[in-house]
Design goal:
With 506 residues, the chain is mostly helical. The protein has helices spanning 2-22, 35-41, 44-52, 56-67, 72-88, 92-103, 124-133, 139-160, 166-190, 193-196, 211-222, 237-251, 255-267, 278-303, 309-337, 347-366, 392-407, 419-426, 430-441, 445-462, 469-476, 481-492, 496-505.
Length: 506
Amino acid sequence: MRQSTNYIVLLFLWLNLAFAYGITTNSGYGGFPTPIAETFKDSLDWADYYFNIHRFEDAIPLYKKSLRETDKAQKIHILKKLALSQAALDNPEESIAHIYDYFKIDFQPTFLLHEDFDGIRDEENFAKLSGTVLPKITVWSVFYFFVALIGFYVTFVLLINKKIDKHARILIATFVFIHSLFILNICVNHTNYVFEFPHTYLMSTWSSLLYGPLLFLYFKRVSKPTDLSKSDLWHFLPTLVLTVYLIFNVYGFSGTEKVNQMLQRLEEGLNAGDSTKLALLVALKAISLGFYALFVHLILNKNSGELSKKTRIWQKNIYLIHVSYVVVYLVYGAYIVAGVNSGVFFHAPIVLMSTMVLYIGYAANVQPDVFSGLYSYTNRLFPKYVKSGLTDSLSQELKQDLIALFQKKKLYRNNDINLDMVADKLGTTRHNASQLINEHFNMSFREFVNSHRIQEAKELLEKENEFNIIDIAYEVGYNNKVSFNKAFKKDTQITPSEYLDSLKQG
């Protein structure tokens, strides 16, 4: 009985050893292959077992085999383990490749902080990846953030300032807004929060071709007493085309698609926050800036003599900042097109854009009258004309034309005369015609017309002729005797009949 018991114990030990040996080889029980042993060896659990005991060489092929047929959750798990395994084996390139694959499924940049990456943390590509996707705060990013906030505030201040010509303030406010949006875009990119908020990717790129047109149209507006025409809308066509392109190729993408697009650029050694068409965009923007800078220069040279000294200095400074930005951007563009890192020229254009925002912000709060250019009018007796487009020389010229219309051509005799008719004859706006009469003759349009009518009526009454009072009223432009009598008495303090009687008595 005791001998039988010993045999049973030995048999149990033999089977136990055989089983243990079988699942650690390709043999199965006691060296004989079994389906169960083979299946267990190829499982994800067995790969995790190898990983946990730091047998990474054995874990990696099992992870790769499991990666072929698995769901998203397991794929994320496997890619993370593969990245960590390769890092532990000091294979940075393979590890980084798995990290990219993992990020494209589940972007969690804090994974890079795992202690198992310490062995490859100083590798160039790993350091670049970490420095690009992990959020960070720098002096530059703080500066850009506050400049952007100031720019948005300045945009609001300009839009609500009724002392600035409406069209001028919309143009210059939009000009400041797109600068501020671009600076904020750079700030988000610089802090790597573009990955946290992927819909900020290229959020300012739609306005790349808008800087030149806005500044040009602004200076065009404040240099002429006429409104912008519909043909000026053609200047916005390139921006419209670019915006439509971006909607279908960037803005319409999901957050995950945008992250993957940025990761693809980063994997190719490019700046993640830039467009895939960066070189083309930079070239087009540089050309646009250059041409419009020339157009603005021509406008300033043509009209500088008619501006006040303060306005002239302000416009000159705006133009110099813009031209400096254009020059620096052209150099930056040359680097980009050539495929060379721009170095210091990355920050130089943004600093000049920040200077533009801050200078316009200063002017908006200290001297807002400079924004209207030739539309500024400082005569405090007529504050409602602060937005007028009349210069002194033009005002004097129109005054002489107005006198000729009323004294020589006797335009007032038209019984349907109105301000629009006078403005049309003068070739100016209704607003400017009203301003002429108010400023030079210190009376309203109706008073101005009546003064000429009554003056001629008195001359006709003084002459011995066959005209009666009603005929004279019609002759000078009145439609009825009542209106004539009322206007005549207001001017002379007596009625036309009384005035005629006084003449006979005299």
